[in-house]
């Protein structure tokens, strides 16, 4: 039952994110956020390619989505991209640091809740030493890097490359696993 419900929600969450972006996004200034959205897409696809033969997580097929790759594309374009747009549109730039941290933490908790739901429904599985704790770290890192990229793209790319090197070493991803 949970698996069936989650199968529909796998498409529902991206749709809700897209509708929320339509409602709450700063469409007058969408061009300001576009480079960071492309940054997210590039990093996600890079990680997918980097871990293709040595996956750390896999999106399982469901009634509506037949495989990992299509799920990853759907979530990236229609789930994460709208989140980035809203996150940056509403980011409290002029607020105190503590409020900025709380704002980012709310987005991290939202993302963890969705992933936990999909994990409970067996629509995502972890492999090669990955677990929800690592996903929490990635969500924190991702929202931090999105904010950094928005104002200082070079440093965000540098942080991501350092993270990829760490993941490659820590999770023993062989270079031969790259295509």
* Basic shape: globular
Instruction: Give the overall average pLDDT.
Output: 90
Number of strands: 2
Q: Give the distance, in angstroms, between the N- and C-terminal Cα atoms.
A: 37 Å
Question: What amount of the residues lies in strands?
Answer: under 5%
Explain what you see:
The protein is mainly alpha-helical and 179 residues long. It is built from six helices and two strands. It has helices at residues 2-24, 30-50, 68-89, 97-120, 132-151, 153-170, and strands at residues 57-59, 124-126. Strands 1-2 form a two-stranded antiparallel ribbon.
Essential attributes:
single chain, 179 residues, mainly alpha, two-stranded antiparallel sheet, 6 helices, 2 strands, 3% strand
Summarize the structure.
With 179 residues, the chain is mainly α. It has 6 helices and 2 strands.
Topology:
Elements: H1 2-24, H2 30-50, E1 57-59, H3 68-89, H4 97-120, E2 124-126, H5 132-151, H6 153-170
Antiparallel strand pairs: 1-2
Helix pairs in contact: 1-3, 1-4, 2-3, 2-5, 2-6, 4-5, 5-6
């Amino acid at each position: 039952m949970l698996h069936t419900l989650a199968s529909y929600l796998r498409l529902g969450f991206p749709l809700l994110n897209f509708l929320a972006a339509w409602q709450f996004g700063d469409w007058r200034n969408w061009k300001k956020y576009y480079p960071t959205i492309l940054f997210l897409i590039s990093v996600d696809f890079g990680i997918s390619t980097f871990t293709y033969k040595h996956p750390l997580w896999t999106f399982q097929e469901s009634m509506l989505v037949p495989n990992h790759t299509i799920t990853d594309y759907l979530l990236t374009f229609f789930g994460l991209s709208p989140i980035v747009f809203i996150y940056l549109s509403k980011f409290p730039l002029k607020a105190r640091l503590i409020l900025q941290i709380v704002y980012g933490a709310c987005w991290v908790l939202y993302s963890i809740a969705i992933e936990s739901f999909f994990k409970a429904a067996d629509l995502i599985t972890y492999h090669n030493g990955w677990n929800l704790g690592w996903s929490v770290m990635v969500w924190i890192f991702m929202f931090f890097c999105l904010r950094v990229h928005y104002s200082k793209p070079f440093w965000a790319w540098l942080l991501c490359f350092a993270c990829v090197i760490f993941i490659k070493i820590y999770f023993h991803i062989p270079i031969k696993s790259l295509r």
